[in-house]
Specification:
Number of strands of chain A: 17
Number of helices of chain A: 7
Oligomer: heterodimer
Radius of gyration of chain B: 20 Å
Number of helices of chain B: 7
Structural class of chain B: alpha+beta
Order of helices and strands of chain A: HHEEEEEEEEEEEHEHEEHEHEEH
Structural class of chain A: alpha+beta
Radius of gyration of chain A: 22 Å
Strand content of chain B: 25-35%
Number of strands of chain B: 18
Helix content of chain A: 10-25%
Largest interface: A-B, 30 and 30 residues
Distance between the termini of chain A: 36 Å
Largest sheet of chain A: 11 strands, mixed
Helix content of chain B: 10-25%
Largest sheet of chain B: 9 strands, mixed
Order of helices and strands of chain B: HHEEEEEEEEEEEHEHEEEHEHEEH
Shape of chain A: globular
Chain lengths: 361, 334
């Protein structure tokens, strides 16, 4: 299981080399064929089980990149101005430890401490333009290896959380950065461990967070019969931020979907695509036959590599399977390892079941 | 043809769920085409071979209509919605959502008797007449179309999803009436035109496959002859509209001129369409693969994206005449 290594590794959109290297090393014992395209997408192909006639070519993708920052300017006083790469809630940025550049120089996104805030400043969060990263430099020439154009990301280390279940065992919940989408990458690596009655074209894509860019060319090159996208999606199981006046306990059961620990989340439709209903039904049927809990991602929001892949060439029937995680696109996201392993089981069984799929179906 | 229009408009076919419409069209065209195939996203390709030395011409009409998807079901059995395509929230109140399993939900807005304005789908809910979650006959992700019968008012027709089943009907009728053509004609009944911010999705992949020289979308356009609508020349009953531009496309000027000349030579009433909003499958066909000379013929339609869209039947007949005349001869585009 490579989730820990992949989460701790750094790979902001456009700078996925470290992730790619780790994946290539991990895939070497599988003796599968691999190649890297000009944009940096990593293709690892596992041929169909021997004696399979005219196997389907099934593309399964997971994006390697994570959201982060790019250093845009170093000020005269040695502070690093930055631009966000990917989508952020800027309220979460202030005060967070980050690491900058290839040498992982430690830094902090600076802020005014509460002692010094003026009246009215408490409720306001300035623009990202007003923020800066402090790496302890005291002047423009004191930043060492760090330069404009460097990438930065949250300095977070993977680890277990402390929850205990009713049987006294540790809940399998872990925290780390970039579970979106290193969880997908780790699952796709696990899928490559087995043979299927289909040709598995595993594609670890680049630049998803800034507009599904890697997947656009990857889908064209892979030219698959069917595609699955593995993702890590936002769990919507947090208590409401505004307390409900009618609720006396003020500790409502979560209402949103998907929820942590309830199994892989299936996408029916998001902003980027409508999932092929035949594939959604196949996933549901496979989950039910194999007693794998599953749930739906809230329809109509977000977008994934499937948005690009399903429009490749003459079109590709596609579906998305996601591990739910809380606090994605933030310093530490939380996922339930049970959901992680269930997603692997669901995908393995689905790839095996796909033999019933035909082009005329 | 009115029977066909009734059948097509009463069929269920929200974006991504066009099977029923596709089956109706398949049955209609199978005896008149050289080949009928379905591509990976569900577009229906109906090919009529030309007599030779013509062009490859793609004609597109979309099968899908706007619809709703269940986004969330609360403990009391009310469902919340997300739209498939541009669903105007104010037309939803009192509407009925029809699901593939036959379930019907009534749509209303929160606090109906005291509501202010219906300006967001977020305030709408589906009522299945049950009182707890377990009794709701649908699941998250299930898709609904609308229930509304076709009405023949004589000169005009009223139905849901005339956008763009009327385009489908025109393409079917054109295929049947064409006795000879030099061109290889690809009548493509597309999926997923109503959804997404980019070029229409079904037409994009279909055009990649067809690689047409000339591409023509047949769709509806707005009508400027209703109260309050200003600065739009197109009117119901004044003939099919030859598109010059919309928000997504500038029509190929040579193709547009050829359409106008053909209409004039054959005494077919027609009008010119300059639309500031919207787009059609022609946008995708123009840009797919190596590109094509793209244009569109639009049927003026009142009350677009409401459950009661209205068109003039003569515009439909003249649209067929224009297409048959255009496709019967050579298509030199200058």
């Amino acid at each position: 299981m490579y989730l820990e290594q992949l989460s701790n590794a750094v790979g902001v959109s456009g700078d996925e080399g470290e992730i790619r290297k780790l994946l290539i090393e991990a895939a070497k014992p599988l003796a599968a064929e691999w190649r890297v395209d000009t944009m940096g997408n990593l293709f690892i192909t596992r041929r169909a089980r021997p004696h399979t006639e005219r196997p389907l070519r099934v593309m399964v993708t997971a994006h390697m990149d994570e959201v982060g920052f790019m250093i845009s300017k170093i000020t005269d006083s040695g502070r690093l101005k930055f631009r966000p790469i990917g989508s952020f809630d800027r309220r979460i940025l202030l005060g967070k430890p980050v690491s900058v550049g290839k040498e992982r120089v430690p830094g902090v996104i600076g802020l005014k401490p509460s002692h010094l805030l003026q009246r009215g400043e408490y409720d306001r969060v300035g623009s990202v333009d007003s923020m800066y990263i402090d790496i302890g430099a005291t002047g423009k020439n004191g930043t060492g290896s760090v330069a404009a154009g460097d990438f930065a990301t949250f300095a977070t280390t993977y680890g277990p959380l402390g929850g205990i279940d009713q049987g006294g065992n540790r809940e399998g919940r872990v925290k780390g950065k970039a579970f979106d989408n290193r969880a997908g990458c780790a699952i796709l690596l696990e899928l490559l461990n087995e043979d299927y009655p289909v040709e598995l074209v595993a594609v670890f894509t680049v630049q998803e967070e800034i507009g599904l860019r890697g997947a656009r060319v990857a889908g064209y090159a892979a030219n698959p019969d069917v595609a699955f996208v593995l993702e890590c999606t936002a769990a919507d199981d947090l208590p409401p931020i505004e307390p409900d006046e009618d609720d006396e306990t003020d500790d409502k059961a979560p209402q949103g979907i998907p929820r942590l620990g309830q199994g892989p989340a299936l996408t029916v439709m998001d902003r980027s695509f409508i999932a092929d209903r035949r594939l959604v039904d196949l996933l549901i049927e496979t989950a039910e036959i194999n007693d794998i809990p599953y749930q739906f991602k809230r329809p109509g929001i977000g977008g994934t590599d499937a948005g690009a892949v399903h429009l490749a060439r003459e079109g590709v029937p596609a579906a998305v399977v996601s591990v739910p995680a809380r606090y994605i696109h933030a310093p530490a996201s939380v996922l339930d390892l049970a959901d992680f392993w269930r997603t692997i089981r669901l995908m393995r069984a689905t790839l095996t079941n796909l033999t019933h799929w035909s082009h005329s179906s | 043809m009115k029977t066909l229009i009734k059948q097509l408009t009463e069929a269920y076919g929200p974006s991504g769920y066009e099977q029923a419409v596709r089956e109706i069209i398949k049955n209609q065209v199978s005896d008149h085409a050289d080949s009928v195939t379905v591509d990976p996203l569900g577009n229906l390709h109906v090919i009529k071979k030309g007599s030779g030395d013509g062009l490859t011409v793609m004609l597109a009409a979309h099968m899908d209509e706007i619809g709703l998807m269940v986004a969330y079901i609360d403990d009391k059995g009310f469902a919340r919605l997300t739209p498939l395509g541009g669903v105007p929230p104010e037309t939803m109140v009192g509407n009925r959502a029809l699901f593939t399993n036959g379930a019907v939900g009534v749509i209303n807005v929160e606090n109906w008797l005291f509501h202010d304005r219906v300006n967001s789908l977020r305030k709408l809910y589906l009522d299945f007449g049950v009182s707890k979650k377990e009794d709701v006959p649908v699941r998250v992700g299930d898709v609904a179309g609308f229930q509304r019968p076709f009405v023949d008012m004589g000169e005009t027709l009223v139905a849901k999803s005339l956008d763009d089943r009327i385009g489908c009907a025109i393409l079917i009728e054109t295929l049947m009436q064409l006795t000879q053509t030099p061109h290889d004609l690809h009548f493509v009944f597309t999926v997923q035109e109503e959804v997404g911010g980019g070029p229409p999705r079904g037409a994009l992949t279909a055009a990649y496959k067809v690689q047409p020289d000339v591409a023509i979308a047949v769709d509806v356009t707005d009508s400027g002859d209703v109260p309050g609508r200003k600065h739009f020349e197109v009117k119901l009953g004044s003939g099919p509209a030859i598109k010059v531009m919309d928000r997504g496309m500038l029509a190929h000027p040579g193709l547009r001129r050829r359409m106008v000349e053909t209409a004039e030579q054959n005494d077919i009433p027609h009008q010119i369409e300059v639309l500031r909003m919207g787009t059609t499958d022609a946008q995708a066909m123009q840009l797919a693969h190596g590109g094509s000379a793209a244009g569109a013929i639009s049927i003026p339609c009142r009350h677009i994206h409401t459950p009661s869209e209205m068109i003039h039947f003569q515009d439909v007949e003249n649209g067929v005449k224009l297409l048959v005349a255009l496709l019967s001869g050579p298509l030199q585009l200058e």
